[in-house]
Amino acid sequence: MTEKDYSRLDEEFNVDFPGADRHDYPEGIYCVTEGQKGGEATLITCGEKTVLYDCGQQYAADETIEQIKEKLGGRSLDYILVSHTHYDHIGALPQIRQAFPDVKTVGSAYGQYVFTRPGALKVIKELCISAAKFYSNVDEKDITTDGMAIDIVLADGEKLDIGGGMYFVALETKGHTDCAMTYVLEPQKIMFSSESTGICVAPGNSNLAILKSYDDSMASLKKCREYGAKRIISPHYGIMPEYYNEEFWDEFIRAAEEEKEYVVGMWNDGLSPEEMLAKASKELYSEARREEQPYEAFVANCKALFKVYEKYADEDKKYKDNN
Q: What is the pTM of this model?
């Protein structure tokens, strides 16, 4: 097994590209979670209909709603696009739906199903509580999943018309979750990428989140890359320079191969899941990551990640036994 390179793990997250501001979006697109840790939401007001992409963390719902209302300037909020159903992306959904009663939530069919599962809602609530304790003084009694739902389902390739000649194209991008979606604002060709194809954290550095399927993530990357977006907005980061588009996809492939080798190597070394978690916690839960992610969420991600690559370790073992 090749020794993993940890030299970049303590780099600061969310580093701007030289001469660029990651929140310097095109006109009519705004980050509305300024100052929030661990979550992000983006407001799109350039069409006749207004759209919120993701909701940010529940502990900061009041501040997010204030920023949304300020940018709307008296307009209504028409749609919420759900990238996927993880707590840090849809945490504030109940409060935002309450603040804007006529808003329609848009996402995948599987995401709609997730919101009907008591077990899934329980996990979402637990992680929202964990984030509230980690980042703020919000009382856990105020954390809720009431109102978490998807009203409008978009399948792969379907469009959401927002007027003024503008529309979103939905792309199913599994890998991080089975409900993950990428949305492209047309005709501007601005892609709001999903975590299935990586998270930019700094120039030349991506953070991975392949929690369901390596193969699905690679298929999602191919689909997104071939779409040919003009600009890419990376989750938990912001907008990247246009010149970086191809390198962003290449960096995901490099990092995914490195992560796969790292986890498969632990399986092949005979480590138990508990030993793997201890090793990953020591080597991967850096100070920079600690600022962005509660440990409970890190543990949940690690457990999912280990399952993703267990089958590859089994395949390696079968190959060695037969040769």
A: 0.91
For residue 220, CA distances in Å to 98, 196, 255, 305, 313 come to 33, 7, 15, 17, 23
Is 95 within the bounds of a domain? yes
What is the rounded CA–CA span in Å between residue 71 and residue 321?
62
pLDDT above 90: percentage of residues in the chain: 81
φ, ψ (nearest 5 deg) of residue 261: -65, -40
Report strand pairing: 29-31 vs 42-44: antiparallel
* CATH code for the domain in which residue 199 is found: 3.60.15.10
> Do the domain assignments include residue 277?
no
Closest CA to 33 of 5, 52, 9, 51: 52
Q: How many domains does the chain have?
A: 1
280 is a domain residue: no
Q: Find, among 281, 194, 184, the residue nearest to 235 by Cα.
A: 194
Q: What percent of the chain has pLDDT over 70?
A: 93
Q: Where are the alpha helices (DSSP H) in the chain?
A: 61-72, 87-90, 93-99, 109-114, 118-135, 214-227, 245-268, 273-284, 287-292, 295-321
Cβ neighbours of 72 (radius 10 Å): 17
| Structural domain of 167 | 29-253
- Integer Cα distance of 186 and 244 in angstroms: 20
Q: Rounded distance, CA 66 to CA 218, Å?
A: 38
Confidence band (pLDDT; 50, 70, 90) for 207? Answer: confident
Structural domain contains residue 292: no
